[in-house]
Design a protein that fits this description.
This protein is mostly beta strands and 123 residues long. The chain is built from no helices and eleven strands.
């Protein structure tokens, strides 16, 4: 059983930066592809970024490409989301997810989810 714990959310002004982390326990993280998703109030959950098992392949949503960077440190069992040039529309609860077989943009492809961390960007 994989347990995921996100950290690093908070309140930041527009243009600022945050780094989210997602630490896994229960199994070696290298066995899973990882994704970051987000859900804003009143909206459906949406894909933000994903990374393959080794970290060699990464995908980003168009809305975050060039501003967000997903990385992983399998030795630390942790995946990160560096968020720069934040905008008010980035305000959401951010979730990390682990996928045994896929790192697609579809949340249904992931097997385990964290509880989420709130990111609020003020204008």
């Amino acid at each position: 059983q994989v347990q995921l714990v996100e950290r690093g959310g908070g309140l930041v002004q527009a243009g600022g930066s945050l780094r989210l982390s997602c630490e896994a326990s229960g199994v070696p993280l290298r066995m899973y592809a990882m994704g970051w998703f987000r859900q804003a109030p009143g909206k459906e959950r949406e894909f933000a970024a994903s990374i393959s098992w080794s970290g060699g392949d990464r995908y980003y949503a168009g809305s975050v490409k060039g501003r967000f960077t997903i990385t992983r440190d399998n030795a630390k069992n942790t995946v990160y989301l560096q968020m720069n040039s934040l905008k008010p529309e980035d305000t959401a609860v951010y979730y990390c997810a682990a996928g045994k077989y896929s790192y697609s943009r579809s949340g249904s492809e992931y097997d385990y989810w964290g509880q989420g961390t709130q990111v609020t960007v003020s204008s």
